[in-house]
Design a protein that fits this description.
It is a single chain. The protein folds into 4 domains: about 1-90, 3-Layer(aba) Sandwich (Rossmann fold), CATH 3.40.50.20; about 125-180, ATP-grasp fold, A domain (Dna Ligase, domain 1, 2-Layer Sandwich); about 190-320, 2-Layer Sandwich (D-amino Acid Aminotransferase, Chain A, domain 1); about 325-425, Alpha-Beta Complex (Glycinamide Ribonucleotide Synthetase, Chain A, domain 4). It has 14 helices and 24 strands. Strand 7 and strand 8 (about 155) form a beta hairpin. The radius of gyration is 21 Å and the shape is globular. It is α+β, with helices and mostly antiparallel strands. The longest helix has 21 residues, at about 240-260. Helix 1 (about 10-20) packs parallel to helix 10 (about 290-300). It starts with a strand and ends with a helix.
């Protein structure tokens, strides 16, 4: 098969790495790709949000399967356009992608289908939002309704902080049109869990569990980011808990979407808080998480391509996946200043030395090469240093040793990725 992966981040590098290893894949393309992806796929200079450009390329080059990585092209209707041209595609339609495109849509779906989630209210008026915050008190969570690249959520410890978040989103337009409306919800307390399932519209096949680290600083401090690291499996995800998640959250979501005439096909990410009541939904994503995808692909024993095709073709009911028992952990190296302003074009050395270690992969998230071959940083999150180990602690040690080989003075990373699991292992 000729396969096209859409996107240019660490998630897409991991997907290309897994897809490229399939005997079913004879030609692999990525649009737009990055410097790391260029080593394993043919990069195509088409932006991930250029729907017509991507459809035109897929038609001209006889692409047999398109795998959409990021959320933006899904929300713009790329899947719908490809289907209209009879091109097989893995990912949800524009209508189904509303699960991520609108926090309000997702919360209303939960309320209508008894899916456990925090109490919430939706606002398009800043004064009304401020009044609600004063009535509810803090801690409280303020979310931009639309897509904000993982940065539109404020977990406010005080009423003043929450009101400032409303003003930033609705008045200062910090997130553009995404913040024209906000969702304000009660703050859930517990342990976070990333739960993924492949979906074909009616059947959901659970994937391995993972835990992300959203805050920029050690000890889960500082502002939220797109994710500073992840590991899999997550010890909190017991078989019993996974059964409850499937029964209370994933299956009702699929049923509700199908009943609305917008069946969900693709990978469904449920960001969960495990509270004293059990699993409660924080948010949906309509694609593989980033950086969770990196650790999932490292642990996946089965060929991913038949699984993606089975989901697209609606035949997951007769499908299964196998996973390596070892743990995987990834540490995000980001440009200093992220998630705020940061410099682009700084030089990175030592990636090859880092990858020379056993059971280590460096997935590129925001990189490019100059004409002389020099690797440069071109984004906020730039490298995902990923390692396998018998335990999370062993994978953590290996990943940080590999980071020691990378020479990038303008970069930084958290130094405690996996700390919850490591504490459990040590106990």
């Amino acid at each position: 098969m000729k396969i096209l992966v859409v996107g240019g981040g660490g998630r897409e590098h991991a997907l290309c790495w897994a897809i490229g290893g399939s005997p079913l894949c004879t030609e692999l393309y990525c649009a737009p790709g990055n410097a790391g992806i260029a080593a394993i796929a043919q990069c195509v200079d088409i932006d991930a949000s250029d729907v017509e450009g991507l459809v035109g390329f897929a038609k001209r080059d006889g692409i047999d399967l398109v795998v959409v990585g990021p959320e933006a092209p899904l929300v713009l209707g790329l899947v719908d356009r490809l289907k209209a041209e009879n091109i097989k595609v893995f990912g949800p339609t524009q209508a189904a992608a509303q699960l991520e495109a609108s926090k309000g849509f997702a919360k209303d779906l939960c309320a209508a289908n008894d899916i456990p989630t925090a109490a919430y209210a939706r606002f398009e008026d800043a004064d009304a939002a401020r009044t609600h915050i004063r009535e509810r008190g803090a801690p409280i969570v303020v979310k931009a309704d639309g897509l904000a690249a993982g940065k539109g959520v404020t977990v406010a410890a005080t009423v003043d902080e929450a009101i400032a978040a409303v003003d930033a989103a609705m008045l200062d337009e910090a997130f553009g049109a995404a913040g024209a409306a906000v969702v304000i919800e009660d703050c859930l307390v517990g342990e976070e869990l990333s739960f993924f399932a492949l979906c074909d519209g009616t059947t959901a096949l659970p994937l391995a569990s993972a835990q992300d680290h959203k805050a920029v600083g050690d000890g889960d401090t500082g502002p939220n980011t797109g994710g500073m690291g992840a590991y899999s499996p997550a010890p909190v995800a017991t078989p019993e808990l996974e059964g409850r998640i499937m029964e209370r959250i994933v299956q009702p979501t699929l049923k509700a979407m199908a009943a609305a005439g917008t069946p969900y096909v693709g990978v469904l990410y449920c960001g969960l808080m495990i509270t004293d009541k059990g699993p409660e939904l924080i948010e949906y994503n309509v694609r593989f998480g980033d950086p969770e995808c990196q650790v999932l692909m490292m642990r996946l024993m089965s060929d991913i391509v038949p699984a993606l095709i089975a989901a697209a073709d609606g035949v997951l009911a007769s499908f299964d996946l196998r996973w390596y028992p070892e743990a995987a952990l990834t540490v995000v190296m980001a440009a200093k200043g992220y998630p705020g302003a940061y410099d682009k074009g700084t030089e990175i050395a030592g990636v090859e030395a880092a990858e020379a270690a056993d059971d280590v992969m460096v997935f590129h998230a925001g990189t490019a090469r100059r004409s002389d071959g020099t690797l440069t940083a071109q984004g906020g999150r730039v490298l995902n240093v990923t390692a396998i180990g018998q335990t999370v602690g062993a994978a953590q040690k290996r990943a940080y040793e590999a980071i020691g080989a990378i020479d990038w003075p303008e970069g930084f990373c958290r130094r405690d990725i996996g700390w919850r699991a490591v504490q459990r292992e040590e106990a």
